[in-house]
Write a structure and sequence with these properties.
The protein has 82 residues and is mostly helical. It has one domain: Orthogonal Bundle (Double Clp-N motif). It contains 4 helices and no strands. It has helices at 2-9, 17-26, 39-50, 70-81. The longest helix is centred in the middle third of the chain and has 12 residues, at 39-50.
């Protein structure tokens, strides 16, 4: 999942809702749904809002998936109810 990769790129200890957003934007080739939102702009906005405060002390073991945060799980739960 692209969101997990975005979380790994920022050395986060879990996949958060902002990483899910970045993953969705990353799947748009040029810009997000014909807007001025690009992956780089979205990353800058996420870093400005959240910083890089979610750091992990050790890298995950090879082949191990990164866990989803409580808020990210809520995003998936709400999306499945729509």
């Amino acid at each position: 999942m692209m969101g997990q990769q975005e979380a790994k790129n920022t050395a986060s200890n879990e996949v958060c809702s902002e990483h899910i957003l970045l993953g969705i934007v990353a799947q748009s080739p040029d810009n997000f749904y014909s807007t001025d939102v690009t992956l780089e702009r979205a990353r800058e906005a996420v870093h400005a809002l959240f910083g890089r405060r979610r750091r992990r002390d050790a890298a995950p073991k090879a082949g191990q998936d990164m866990p989803f945060s409580r808020n990210a799980k809520k995003v998936f739960e709400q999306a499945s109810m729509v």
